[in-house]
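In the previous chapter we treated chains in isolation. Here, by contrast, the input contains two separate entities that must be folded as one system, with a combined length of 228 residues.
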Amino acid sequence: KAGVTQTPRYLIKTRGQQVTLSCSPISGHRSVSWYQQTPGQGLQFLFEYFSETQRNKGNFPGRFSGRQFSNSRSEMNVSTLELGDSALYLCASSLAGTGVSGANVLTFGAGSRLTVL
Amino acid sequence: DAKTTQPTSMDCAEGRAANLPCNHSTISGNEYVYWYRQIHSQGPQYIIHGLKNNETNEMASLIITEDRKSSTLILPHATLRDTAVYYCIVRAKYNNNDMRFGAGTRLTVKP
């Protein structure tokens, strides 16, 4: 079955612009989580969506937002881009979301590499 | 939140077993141990997970100590393609997708 698909794979923006990244989860997965990865901070959790609702949020400013559609596809948006937003943005999907018992394996996409100039 | 400690880097000869240790001394009773790996510029790849019993799949084996304070990921016959950063993660909260990735272990498989 198809994996997690993220688009675009690479993009370049300038400071002050905004960007929208897209994630299509594995078919049947209802939970989508977003992570930011930078060389200095490693992988950091941004937020999680389940059934179109944000279930959990990491420690990022309000410039970072997301949403999930009824087909479980998700988008994240970063407004007023800063140089420090340059990173690999990873999306991961899973069957279950927060609060469901048992193991919960996240499957990651290849990521969207954002460069802010 | 439970935290993990892993060696920064390890080397392994091609064809030999790679044993990657992880300490998670503050793990709670209902928390799982997950292992992921990340090859340069790709998304993390799931390897294996376990609660208290040892686990094996087509990629690796996971050995968890009886007190659950540490675990070892075993790649039985390492190949050059296994060169990657390996992350040991204990899920932060009850089935919370806020998975806390540490710095991981950079495994280099050498010919």
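The mean pLDDT of chain B is 92. The interface with chain A takes residues 32, 34, 36, 41-46, 49, 51, 87, 91, 93-103 of chain B (CB under 8 Å). Compare these points with the single-chain example from earlier in the chapter.
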